[in-house]
Amino acid sequence: MKISLRAGERIYINGAVLRVDRKVSVELVNDVMFLLEGQVMQASDATTALRQLYFIVQLMLMNPTDIRDAAALYGQHHAALCAVCESREMLDGLGAVDELVGATRYFEALKRIRALFPVEQAILAGAITESPFQAA
Q: How far is the C-alpha of 116 from the C-alpha of 94, rounded, in Å?
């Protein structure tokens, strides 16, 4: 896989943070877990339940040698989300995310969670007529 980075951009590879000082292309020739800087969510941006789940999975990807605490937090957060959610689309997505996380395919799990952001936004905005979340 070939990745192009701009000057000053960061990439997170297997827990390491690399920052380039000029425009560069990097070819990843083996299987690694990585995130581009634009895909990294800051803690302050984890303002909804689904964004918090994203942040937790991101921690697992960025620090693959020490995921025990993040994995426990993921399990609790995922279970809580599933318990209060009634939206079939959201539940199916959360099931797929759980399978990906269980297979340590964190990057794919993050992509799947990002795809659910509009669903969550619609739920929070009340655009879906059924009540997708119940008060806990």
A: 9
